[in-house]
Amino acid sequence: MKIIVAEFAEETNSFSPIIADRGHFTPWMSATSKKEIHGFADVLAENGYETFFGPMYRAESSGKVDHAVVEEFLSDLRKCIAEKGPVGAVCLALHGATQTTEVDDGCGYIIKTVKKEYGVPVAVSFDLHANVTDCIFTEADAVAGYQTYPHRDQYNTGRRSASQLVRLLSGKKEYAAKVSVPMIAPASGYTTDNGPLSELYKRAKGLLEDGTLLDFTMFQVQPWLDVRECNAVVYIRAADPETARNTALSLGQDLSGMGEFMQPQLDSYEAIIKALEENKTGKPVIVSDFSDSPNAGSVGDDVKILKYMLENGLQYRCAFIVNDPEAVKKAFKTGIDGKAVFRIGGGIDPANKTSVEVEAVVESLHSGRYVPNGPALNGFELSIGKSAVLRAGNFDILVCNHMCITGDLMLYRHFGIEPTQFQMAIVKANTSFRLVYTPIAGKILVVDTGCPSTADLKSLPWTRIPKDSMFPWVEIKKTYKAAEHLMEKAV
Ligand SMILES: [Zn+2]
Known about the structure:
By secondary structure, the protein is of the alpha/beta class. The chain folds into two domains: 2-262 and 481-490, 3-Layer(aba) Sandwich (Rossmann fold), CATH 3.40.50; 269-454, no CATH class. It is 26% helix and 22% strand. It contains twelve helices and 19 strands. The chain has helices at 36-46, 67-84, 106-118, 134-139, 154-169, 196-209, 241-255, 269-278, 304-311, 325-334, 410-413, 434-437; strands at 2-9, 50-58, 89-94, 122-126, 142-145, 175-181, 215-219, 232-238, 285-288, 318-323, 339-344, 356-366, 369-370, 382-383, 387-392, 395-400, 424-427, 443-446, 486-490. The strands form four sheets. An eight-stranded mixed sheet has the order 11-12-15-16-10-17-9-18. A five-stranded parallel sheet has the order 2-1-3-4-5, with helices on both faces. It has a four-stranded antiparallel sheet with strand order 7-8-6-19. Strand 15 (387-392) and strand 16 (395-400) form a beta hairpin. It is globular, with a radius of gyration of 23 Å. It starts with a strand and ends with a strand. The mean pLDDT is 95. It binds zinc ion. The site of zinc ion has 4 residues, from loops. Zinc ion is lined by residues 127-129, 151.
């Protein structure tokens, strides 16, 4: 039996002004690290199935996906199956939480279309921040999402979904249960490494290790997704229906009480000054400017922290990064060692009006290609587009076209900015950065600059999400009954 493995990955921030068109999607390949697609392929090969790779569409987080891209992906998938098939199953590495210009549930649409056209089992993998809808639960035969945040189990997630598929193809009966919890929490407010959510994960992992469960994922839907059906989801696989159902109900019920504990501890702008004054560690203060994180679909053009530093005459040695195509153009025109006045920031998101004017020397110019070495996309060649390092007094400002994988140290290092040589560095990421930045940081601050991936979810201009029944608009802790949000099926 032949099985196709393909990928369609994009996480939508409904508040981003950038529509993800075909140009946003590229196949990202790495010579050194394995991802979901390799996990699928390895397990299938180990079990004697012939696999082949289909279309690979992967994009950074952004706004909605142009629906035509989804149709193009499906058309490529059909061509590939027509050429190399027929197939006995389809494996799709998806991100989840993909809204298109036409449908709220882009992944559900893809799965349903494939299922309808080929009538074979469909196995999918997701990010932990996927929005697992009723449609996805009904249509997909195998579902696995990351169990780590910061994410570092991409390969194993592909393996887990493929393992579910292999069991299904071998005729073993198993059961899936899903409990939805109508809540969203800011991605900077929790990890699976410590805190209340990690305790819930430990409990579920214990059930996996002692053989009670066959698999589980607890999806924390990415919280800037303005769609009608939007939930955190507990997804369970077990050998009998009672275990699947009861575990999903128990974990879902407990998750429903955690919203208030999954909020980030935010620092003020003043705390930056205090941290810089008091820091005697010899290591830099790292400031997470998470609300402008391109990893979470924001555009990365915000300079409120830089502005604050300038206005307060702070002379600390600081590193900044900003998406600003106009500043890059000017840097290339000015040339290395040239001096000019640059207006930086607020150049992409029409809602962002903050910019600063600085006199700076062009320190270096770059093609923008770089290879991250952190756990997110280790070994993948990426590009932030043409870019330049501007030196304005004690500040080094990396201006670029589209920064990506912002939690990776190489995003600075490759362009000649060594964070450990600075007193402060801005990182535009929610949580992913902690894995590599914690060891080099004297202190980590978390400052909300009010951009599209803000932790102040209520401040955003929601139009579709059902606020009348969801946390944080409604305190669901006392009223939520998991049994009212249960779906189950035999697989
Ligand atoms: Zn994620």
